[in-house]
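seq:
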Amino acid sequence: MNKSPKIVLLLLFMLISGTLTAQKWGYVDTEYILNKHPDYKIVQEELKKLSDAWKNEAQSLDKEIQEMYSQLKAEEVLLTEEMYQTRLQDIKKKEEEARAFTSRIFGIDGQYYQKQAELMQPLQSKIYDALERVSRRNNLGMVYDKAASATGIIWTDPRHDYSEFVLDELGIEDNN
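struct:
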């Protein structure tokens, strides 16, 4: 009487393992695809311009703070203790503003990363849509991303690389 659940489980396991081995899989290298896509270069240039402008602004804040320290040091002997402490507090306040600016721009959820996500989203959608079409056309059950380190791919057979098919689907020719 106890054998029937074990037999059912064994049959179910055999059925599942049979379907798993029948799946076709492939991989793509999204980093390779992105570097070939002309829109990616435009996005990178725009991000670099923004980043450079924000870095310049952060550097000017740092320079201003350094000048405030230099001026305080130069006038230190002429200031009363109260005036000295007031100026020091002003400098500390300016340093806090500079840290807040850097955090607001380059922090975890900063404007730089938000802008990067905003600019990359349409491009990533195009690539994903092309990848989906290639996967359906080639009856792929699974597609790995070689560029993503979390996949754990150590070695791949180039015959399973569908990156060129995705580039073809996007209408991008290899110019190497």
